[in-house]
């Protein structure tokens, strides 16, 4: 999937030279991608924190 996204980035960059609005699309895509990555990282961190609490509580 990353290859497809990379190709899309290249295409958007080329198009943005002709159509300035395409730059906004690229920026929005980047923003959304980073938001999703942050969300995944937060969920993983919370999960690991809960495991740590469980292990500490039950001294496993």
State the helical fraction.
over 70%
Low-confidence segments, ≥5 residues, pLDDT <50?
none
Please report the distance between the alpha carbons of the first and last residues: 39 Å
Structural class: mainly alpha
Total E-strand runs: 0
Q: Hey, roughly how much beta strand do the residues contain?
A: under 5%
Main sheet: strands, sense, barrel: none
SSE arrangement, N to C: HH
- Report the mean per-residue pLDDT as an integer: 83
Shape: rod-shaped
In total, the number of domains comes to: 1
H/I helix tally: 2
Give the helices and strands, then pairings:
Layout: H1 2-18, H2 21-58
Helix pairs in contact: 1-2
Question: What can you see in these coordinates?
Answer:
The chain is mainly alpha-helical and 60 residues long. It has one domain. The chain is built from two helices and no strands. Helix 1 runs antiparallel to helix 2. The chain is rod-shaped and about 60 Å long. The model has no long low-confidence stretch (mean pLDDT 83).
Entry keywords:
mainly alpha; 2 helices; 92% helix; 60 residues; single chain
Tell me briefly what this model is.
This protein has 60 residues and is mainly α. It has one domain (2-58).
